[in-house]
Amino acid sequence: MRRPGPRTARVRAVALIRMSAPLAREIARWAPERPFRLSFWDGTVLPSTVSGAPDFRVRGPSALGHVLRSPGRLGLGRAWVQGSLDVADIDRALLVVDDWEPPPLDTATRARLGLAMLLAAAPGGIPRRPGLELILRGQRHSIERDREAVRYHYDVGNEFFSLFLDSSMTYSCAIFSRGAKTLEEAQEAKLELIAQKLRLKAGQRVLDVGCGWGSFAIHAAREHGVSVTGITLSPSQAQLARQGVADAGVADRVEIRLADYRELQAEPFDAIASIGMAEHVGSSQIDTYARSLARLLKPGGMLLNHAIALTNTEEDPTADAFSMRYVFPDGEPLGLARVQLALERAGLRTQHVEGFMDDYAVTLRHWSDRLDAHLPEAVALAGEQRTRVWRLYLRAARRGFEDGYTIVYQTLAVRPG
């Protein structure tokens, strides 16, 4: 058999890399009105039919392979993480992904699109899942699995989080609606608001559930003279929190433990703060969570639960496979009513509920802007793939609060007695 000459080889190569053109034609035929532009690796372009539309850059056939393997958000997310799918403006791209209602697909159209995509994806073969993807094993919300899930998210590295959090390393909704101008001021306002709601007094014992890097524990001990036990499942958080406690001069009043809330023994506390932690508990454990905290409170003791909640309680909070595998494994924000029910079943009485949806949207804008301002450092610390995950996650989360899909509540309850 004769080996192909240079000209024949070039013709075959061009035929191979131009395989995205039939796909572009089929997409145009299926969706004549398109609020997006598609640019393929071989130079094929499918223009948008509206002005100012985001440009989705398909950098290689493996992007199509990911979508074929897992149609929907998970496939798109894998292509984004891998870098074979890119956009210049993530916010505008999210508008399309979340809001565009594509035309219906009949059987014939689905077959033509599928075949065109398969042919265009062929040069890339079957892509592997990005190595960053986490698939948890074992019983959901067991202590062991929760520990693995939390560490996946929080053990990215303290230096990475410091790129976009405020100087106190507070990783929850800041409060701008009461006059704060900077992220630091807004986080300080949030910490003090929680302390005021709990009516902290010098000499009291306080439990900080999911204490993170220790910002509330330090604030409560330093500003209100209380003794605080903070618990976290993240070793890197505990390490930095202990250093922060020592630097703040409150080591005699603050203890940071590596522990799950279910592992605490009966140690009566005057007050409990749970800030941004209940989202990790899950529907199967929310009653256990409420009973555990109620048991740890003295009669008359106060509990403040600060957590994200879904506004559509009919929706499965674990349905977003991309978030489950790349951002918050087993994260499960519940509806406010479900959390209230758990508190009531545990014998607690709700005294006050307050929402901060708009404040969290502003907080997330600050975080994403700060991360974008330190992208080279972020990539050096966490790698290209994880940085891409976080750039997407912070913006998607902000959209959730702007659209009212998610909200954050502070619920204040008391143990009668």
What's the gist of this structure?
The chain has helices spanning 6-17, 20-30, 61-69, 73-82, 90-99, 107-121, 143-154, 158-162, 183-197, 215-224, 235-247, 286-295, 321-326, 336-345, 357-372, 375-382, 384-402; strands spanning 37-40, 45-46, 55-58, 85-87, 205-209, 227-232, 254-258, 269-275, 297-310, 349-355, 406-414. With 417 residues, the protein is α/β, with parallel strands linked by helices.
Structure overview:
The protein is α/β, with parallel strands linked by helices and 417 residues long. It folds into two domains: 6-124, no CATH class; 143-414, Vaccinia Virus protein VP39 (Rossmann fold), CATH 3.40.50.150. Helix content is 46%, strand content 16%. The protein has helices at 6-17, 20-30, 61-69, 73-82, 90-99, 107-121, 143-154, 158-162, 183-197, 215-224, 235-247, 286-295, 321-326, 336-345, 357-372, 375-382, 384-402, and strands at 37-40, 45-46, 55-58, 85-87, 205-209, 227-232, 254-258, 269-275, 297-310, 349-355, 406-414. A seven-stranded mixed beta sheet has the order 7-6-5-8-9-11-10. Strands 2-1-3-4 form a four-stranded mixed beta sheet. The protein is elongated and about 75 Å long. 42% of the residues are buried.
